[in-house]
Amino acid sequence: MKIYVKPRIHISLISMHGSGYRKNGGIGFSIEEPKGVLEFSPSEQFAFYDKREIRLGGTEQEKLLSVLKQAQTLFGLDKSLTIEFSGGMQTHVGMGSGTALRLACLEALFFINGKSIQRENLISLSQRGGTSGVGMQTYFSGQFVFDLGVKNDDGVFKPSSKTNPTKKPLLLDKFDFPDWTIGLCIPNGIPSKTQIEESEFFEKSCPIQAEQSYEVLYHCLYGVYAAVREGDIRSFTKSVREIQSCEWKRLERNEYSDNLFDLEKKLYEHDAMCVGMSSLGPMLYFLASEHDYDNIISQMNGTNCKIVLTKGSNTGREIVL
């Protein structure tokens, strides 16, 4: 069997201050390309083969197989999996590949063993989604997602890769994303963050001041959320621009060299309406008038990045038997 998984754009986390009712939460949406292709076959032992140009690290592969073995033991499943991962979906650039990979492998494990499992149990087994539920929601249904994070019981902030959540983020709303063209700018010369570096970033950056969480919430709710609901691309692009200078996103962006800001500057010089960084980056996403995309692609040629044009996706992963 094969499962085609789709990337997601994560616009921002929201409640990152220490004294809030809830922590984390965020907004984002699914996109059609570049897809990841996962091919599964039954086997006696688990095996993972990453055929992409930039492969998953050894420690991350071990963690994936550990999660699968735990699920196999817990549910008494006889068959293991051989997994092949290909396609253009990249790891640690802001596409949400880690969550999609875990969920797809777990779905395949139960299907190949002839077992059914509820979606909520599948999410729990994945040990993902403790920071934001955007990737969990978009994996199954695509769309635009706004979640309210989890109760702030301990004031501890961690990236999704380091959480083993007992509570799942509270979904506020999800609905179809408009038929807007989305540009992706994937830098070639900017190193991605490792899971260790992600954890270190959270440790040194959290918590932020409460007023800084309130600011990004305004732009997420009254800006992005309302704009997507009403199909208002002008308000959407304005609020995405504003979010880039809010404290949490500013801290994320400052993790990278001036090369990232140079790419952003060039995109604006060639008439991008907005440029945002997805999650902890370094992938940038941008919107422009439809007649400007060809010029942007032409002008960005030779800037050590890959430009991909895609659309929002309002359907989740595709399973092919």
Report on the structure:
This protein has 321 residues and is α+β, with helices and mostly antiparallel strands. It has ten helices and 14 strands. It has helices at 58-75, 97-112, 119-126, 134-141, 195-205, 210-230, 233-244, 247-253, 258-269, 293-300, and strands spanning 2-5, 8-15, 22-30, 36-43, 47-50, 80-87, 144-147, 150-151, 171-175, 181-187, 272-277, 284-288, 305-311, 318-320. A five-stranded mixed beta sheet has the order 5-6-4-1-14, with helices on one face. Strands 2, 3, 7, 8 and 9 form a five-stranded antiparallel beta sheet that branches. A four-stranded antiparallel beta sheet has the order 11-12-10-13. A hairpin with a 6-residue loop joins strand 2 (8-15) and strand 3 (22-30). Helix 1 (58-75) packs parallel to helix 2 and helix 2 packs across helix 3. The longest helix has 21 residues, at 210-230. The radius of gyration is 19 Å and the shape is globular. The termini are close together. The mean pLDDT is 93.
Please state the average pLDDT score.
Answer: 93
Distance between the termini: 5 Å
By secondary-structure content and strand pairing, the structural class works out as alpha+beta
Helical residue percent? 25-40%
Low-confidence stretches: none
Q: Give the spatial strand order of the biggest sheet.
A: 5-6-4-1-14
Proportion of β residues? 15-25%
Net shape = globular
- Give a quick account of the main beta sheet: strands, pairing sense, barrel closure: 5 strands, mixed
Q: Roughly how many Å is the radius of gyration?
A: 19 Å
> If helices are DSSP runs of H or I spanning 4 or more residues, what is the number of helices?
10
Helix and strand string, N-terminal first? EEEEEHEHHHEEEEHHHHHEEHEE
Give the number of DSSP strands: 14
